[in-house]
Amino acid sequence: MVHAHMTAWFLAIILFFVALGLHKSGKQKGFKVLKMILRVLYILILATGLGLIFSLANISFLYIVKVVVGLWVIALVEIILGRTAKGENTKVLWIQFVIALILVLYLGFALPLGTYIF
Description:
This protein is mostly helical. It has one domain. Helices cover 81% and strands 0% of the residues. It has 4 helices and no strands. The chain has helices at residues 2-24, 28-54, 61-86, 91-110. The longest helix is centred in the middle third of the chain and has 27 residues, at 28-54. InterPro entries: UPF0344. This is UPF0344 protein SAMN05192533_109134. Its main location: membrane. The chain crosses the membrane at residues 6-24, 36-57, 63-81, 93-117. It is found in: Cell membrane.
């Protein structure tokens, strides 16, 4: 389950940046298609993440924080794509995205569930 979760969020991050590149190059149809694929990946990320959380015998506060920050990252990806499509300013959202992504990656790899990097 851990590998499915990691694969889903890794693909989502890659497709997020590819979608932004398509929008920047003016390929709106590809941009919209990738937004739809990203939404399917959000469902996979949420399903595998919930599966991981419910497989724990003892859920600590840090796991709850990781879930909340993970939802924050997904929301920021969707908001950044939406505002980019409308041509609005996304500077503050990008700062939040970087902070939230670093935090969720740190918590994901530091907590004792699955892969150990730190």
